Structure formats: structure tokens, C-alpha cells
Amino acid sequence: MAVTESSAVRIAGLTRRYGSRVAVDALDLEVPRGVIFGFLGPNGAGKTTTIRMLLGLSRADAGEAWILGHHFQRERAAICPRVGAIVETPTFHTELTGIDNLRVVAWTSGVSPGRTALKAVLERVGLQGRGEEPVKGYSLGMRQRLGLAAALVHRPEMLFLDEPTNGLDPAGTIEVRRLLTELAEGGTTIFLSSHILHEVEAVCSELAILHQGRLRLRGELTELLRQEDCFRLRVSPRDRAQALLVEQGLTLRLAGEDSLDVEVAEADVPALVRSLCGAGVDVYRITEVGGTLEDLFMQWTREAEAP
Asked: What is the pLDDT of residue 307?
């Protein structure tokens, strides 16, 4: 019997070993419904292995998981019609056309969309007008688009996407980003594994960082990127402001042509502004500074590697 569906994914102690190497080490993770969830980590961190276990493509040595309220091993039949996926490089019947490949995928998912519906899915992923061509003539980027269409053809409630923009040019990557945002706005939960950090930062609301098979960080993206006690001041003249702040013993760095990032407690910002204005420095704008996902990723993976 299914457990509560308040979470799209719930993982408890999931473990996978290859001989003496532990690829995924007692992973605990929960993913809410209706979000784009970023699943990050360096190569070999265990991301793809985790997805393969959740989808029943690889066995788990220990632990349990539930997808949309159903046990990932005992209730596969209830999960499969509700989930779509791209895992590693999508493969197809290369002698068949794109639309016929979609028809095969739809049939195995228990649905029988008409030709118009299949063309609509191809159009949604940017393959309009190419569905009648054999897949053997598709480029890597076109096959990746077809893989996304195959994941969407049965209108799943949840998507597991492992490097979905692989092989796409910048325009194609932007199209996929827009599509994922539209799907999430429509209620689809997306579990996104990618090494392109700025793409994850652009679309994900929550994320987890995996390293050496272990969960290192989990949280809402905006909260994780928030840097406490750091403010950007747009000032003029900047060199005078810089000298005054250094005299006060504050840590700062240059930002753009006319701004300074200053490490200062929020409660001390009004006094700081008064001191600058009193010294003849004009302060035009003050904004709280946030970090980048790349900074966060490097920080946590370096800490994980430290002895």
C-alpha cells in the first residue's frame, strides 16, 4: 500500500556498493512535490547510480525509497505510468522515425496517443517537422530532444532528468530551461541532475549536493546562496569610500566600476552610511549580496575532500 504522497521522493538509507567501493552511502533525502530539484555532485559522486536505483534500473544493497507515495521496489507498476526519465544517453530504434519511436515508448507506458498528439510533443521539444525522419540521421542534440519527448509522451507527474541538455547548443539549452519551468508551473516535479551549475541555478528552487556517495548539503537555493552580513554599496567617489572602509578595518572587495562589497553586520549598515556621507562620499544604493551556486558547490566539495 502507498504511503503518504506529501513528498514526491522519500529516500531512507539508500546504499549501493560495487565490490569494496560504496557508490551511494546510506542516502537520506526528501523531495517535495511540484519543484525543480537540483541533484548535484562531481563526477563519480553517485548521482546517476541513485537515479538508476530509484527507477529500478540498478539494485539497491540497502535502504528504501518511495516515489509519489509508492515503494520503489514493491510497487513499480504503480510508479512507471506516472514517471518519465532521461538517464545518461537516450537510446532509440534508429531505423524507425522519431514519431514511431515515440509511439513505441507510449505503448510501453500504457497510452496510445494519436499522431496529432505525438507531433505536439515533438513540437514542444523543438523537433517540429523532423518526426518523419529516421532517428539514425539525428544529431546528438536531436536525440537528446527526442529523449525528452519520450519522457513526456505519457504526461508524467514526475521527471527524472540526468544531464538533459547534453549535446544541445545554447539556444536549445534555453528552450529546455523554459520547458522545465513551464512543466513545474503546471505541477510536474522535476528531479534534475546536471553538472552545468548556472543552468541549475536558473531553474531549481531546491537542491542537494552529493559527494563520494554521501549527502553533503540540502536546502532551498535562495537560503543556501544567501551570504549573511555582506552588502554591496554603490558609491562615489569609490576610491575615497574604499580608503575610509579599510581604515575602519572592514573586509571588502571591488564590484563593477562604482561599487564595493562590504562585510558588515546589517545592524551596522546605517552607521556605516552616515560615516561615508559625512566624509563626502555619496551612497546611491545598498543591496544585500548573495553568493553563486558555483561558490557553494566548490566550498562543500572541497570541505568533503579535506582530511
From this structure: 53
pTM reported for the whole predicted model: 0.81
Distance between CA atoms of residues 119 and 8, nearest Å: 29
Q: Which three cell numbers stand for residue 233?
A: 554599496
CA 275 from centre of chain: 43
pLDDT tens per residue across span 31-72: 999 999 999 999 999 999 999 999 999 999 999 999 999 999
The structural domains of the chain, ordered by start, are 32-55+76-224 (3.40.50.300), 227-290 (3.30.70.980)
Q: What is the CA radius of gyration of the chain?
A: 24
Residues contacting residue 222 through CB under 8 Å, at least 6 positions apart: 205, 290
Query: CA 149, CA 240: separation in Å to the nearest integer?
Result: 57
Q: For residue range 133-149, what is the model confidence (pLDDT) as tens digits? A: 999 999 999 999 999 99
User: Which has the closest alpha carbon to 233: 198, 187, 274?
Assistant: 274
CB 64 within 8 A of CB 14: yes
Alpha-helical segments (H) within 72-126: 76-79, 98-108, 115-124
**Cα 225 to the chain's mean position, in Å?**
14
